C-alpha cells in the first residue's frame, strides 16, 4: 500500500487514499468513502522524472498523485514505452552518467569549433558566387586605399611585375582573373584579397633582387586566391555570419564583413595552414611555369632580413608560421627536385 | 497555470508549486484557514543538472529529434516541483505533438532558405505569411500548454480567440511607431491582459486588473538602462575610430562593445520583469481569489547577474542551476490569497462541458516553441 492523493477531476477536492497494484495489473484505490478497482488499461502512469510525484491519470476522469516512489509504479507516460522511460530515468538519476554526458558534450563543442567551423568556412567560401567574391574583394581593397598612399613605382617597374603575373597565369588557369594593385606601405608586403586582388607594396618590388622572386611572391598570393583564403578568413572571423550563410545560403552581407579583412591581414596575416597551403600551391605553380621554387625561399629570407626589429618572432603566439619555419620547409620541399622527376 | 502566469513567462514558465510535507487538503478544512497560501518550489539544481545534461546529449545525438522530449521533461520538472496547497502541478503534453510543431517550423524554414535563394520574392511573401499566422500560432500554443497543465486533477484552459489575438498582435503594434513608442508599455499591458483573461482553471476565470501605470514606469526605467548601454557602445565606437586613425573598426574590435550593449539589454529585460512581477500578480484574480507577490527588484537583478556570470564562466553548463534558483525565488515571492475558506477552493471548477474544446485543443494543439 502506497499513500497517495486522489482528485476526482470534477472539483479540486482531494482525498488521501492508499493505492496498490493487484497481480493482474489493476489499480486498487482505498480511502474514506472510496474503494475502487481500476482495470489495467483504464489508467496511465506518468514517467519517473527526478523526485517529482508520479501522476496516475484515470481514463474515466480523476488523477492520483503519488509522492515520488520510483519503483513502486509501472512506468510509461504518453509518447514513451516502459523500457524507454525506465532507461531515461536511470540515465538521468546517475551522477556518473551526468559527468560522462558533460564530457561528451564539451568534446562535441570543442570538436565543432576546431574542426567543424573551418570545414564549414571552406565549403561556404567555395560556394560563393564570383560576383559576391568580387564585391567582398572591392570592400577590402577600399580600406587599403584609405589606409595607404598610392604607389611611387614608375610604370616600367609595375609593368615588369605584371609580366611575371602573366607568365604564371599562362601556366595555370585561375577561377578569377587576378589584378595587381600597388601601394606605398613603408615595408615590403603583399596581400591576396577575395576576387583576385593582389596588393603589392612598392618596398617589396624594390626588395626583390630579380623578377623571379617577384613571381614567387605572386605565385604564393595566387595560392591564397585560388584556395579562397580571404573569404575563409572573413567567415572564420565571424562564426555568426558563417552559420547564417551556411544555413540560408544568404551571402549578400559578406561584402560588408570583408571590410575587416585588411585589419586582420595587417595584424595577424593568414592562418598558418593557409600559408602552408599557399606555399605548396606556389611551389607547384612555379615549377609548372619553369621557375626555380628556390626563389620563394630567397625572397622570404630577404623579407626576414628586412623585417623591422619588433622583438622575437613568436611562431606559436601568432597564427602565422614564422618565416624561418617556412623557409626551412620550402628548402626541404624543393630539395628533392634536384634529383629530377621522382615518381609521384 | 503556466501559460497564465505572465510574469514567469520569460524563458520557460516555471509554474506554480506542492509537497506532501504539507497536510493535504481534506474534505474538512481547518476552520481557521490561513490568510495566504505560499507557493513552494522543491526543485534541486544538482538533480536538474543531471536531467538537463542527459537530455541535451540525447538531443545532440538524435540531431534535435529528442528536443521535444527534453522540452516536455523540463516543463514537467518545473511544474512537478511547484507545490500549492499540498499538490504539485502536472504537465501532460505528448512530446510527439511538440515534435510535429518543431518539424513544421524546420520544414518551413528550410523551404524559405532553399526557395528564397532562387526566388527572392518568395522571402518577402514568407515573412508576410509568418506575420499573418503569428496570432494563430500564439493562441494555439497557449491553448496547448494550458490544456496540458493540471493541478488537483483539473486542467487549465485558454480560450483561443483568433480575432482578439489579431487585434493584440497585429493591429495594436501599428500604433507603436505612430506614437513614437509611447504606446509600447500600454501594448505590453494589453498583451498580459489578453493572456491572463483568456485563461481559466476549471470553471474559475482569471481576471487582470493592473492598469498601464506600472507598465509605463517599468518600461521607462528599462529604456533608461538601454539608453545608457547605447551611450557606452557609442563611446566605444568613437574611441575605436580614433584609435584606428579614422578608419572603420573591425568586427572583432567592435565585438566587446556589442557584448556590453547586449548585457545592458539583458539587464533592462530582467529589471522590467522584476518591476512588473508584483503589479501583474497583485492585479490577477482567479474568480474572487487573489495573488500576492512580493518580489524584490534588487534581489532579482542580483540573482540574474550572478546567473549570467555563472553561465558565461561555465560556458553554459550552469544554466540548470540558474534556471532552478530563478524559479525558486520567483515562486517563493508568490502567494495565493483565497477569498474565503479553503473550502471555497475545493469547490472550484469542474472541467466538464468542454468536450468540444478538448478535442479542438487536441487537434490543433501544437507547441511552436514560443
Record the SSE blueprint.
The complex is a heterodimer of chains A (344) and B (370).
Chain A (H helix, E strand, L loop, with lengths): L1 E6 L6 E8 L5 E5 L2 E5 L4 E3 L8 E5 L4 E4 L15 H11 L2 H33 L2 H18 L7 H17 L7 E5 L6 E4 L3 E5 H6 L3 H16 L2 H9 L1 H10 L5 H5 L2 H8 L3 H17 L5 H13 L16 H12 L10
Parallel strand pairs in A: 8-10
Antiparallel strand pairs in A: 1-2, 1-7, 2-3, 3-4, 5-6, 6-7, 9-10
Chain B lengths: L36 E5 L3 H17 L5 H14 L1 E3 L2 E5 L3 H24 L1 H28 L1 E3 L2 E5 L3 H10 L3 H4 L5 H14 L1 E3 L2 E5 L4 H31 L7 H32 L1 E3 L2 E5 L3 H17 L5 H14 L1 E4 L4 H5 L8 H10 L6
Antiparallel strand pairs in B: 1-2, 1-10, 2-3, 3-4, 4-5, 5-6, 6-7, 7-8, 8-9, 9-10
Helix pairs in contact in B: 1-2, 1-11, 2-3, 3-4, 4-5, 4-13, 5-7, 7-8, 8-9, 9-10, 10-11
Describe the fold and architecture:
The complex is a heterodimer of chains A (344) and B (370). Chain A is of the alpha+beta class and 344 residues long. Chain A contains 13 helices and 10 strands. In chain A, the strands form 2 sheets. A 7-stranded antiparallel β-sheet of chain A has the order 4-3-2-1-7-6-5, with no helix packed on it. A 3-stranded mixed β-sheet of chain A has the order 8-10-9, with helices on both faces. In chain A, a hairpin with a 3-residue loop joins β9 and β10. The relative contact order of chain A is 0.09. The C terminus of chain A is likely disordered. Chain B is α+β, with helices and mostly antiparallel strands and 370 residues long. Chain B has 13 helices and 10 strands. A 10-stranded antiparallel beta barrel of chain B has the order 1-2-3-4-5-6-7-8-9-10, surrounded by 5 helices. In chain B, α1 runs antiparallel to α2, α3 runs antiparallel to α4 and α4 crosses α5. The longest helix of chain B has 32 residues. Chain B is globular. Classes of the chains: A alpha+beta (344), B alpha+beta (370). The interface between A and B is large, with 59 and 65 residues.
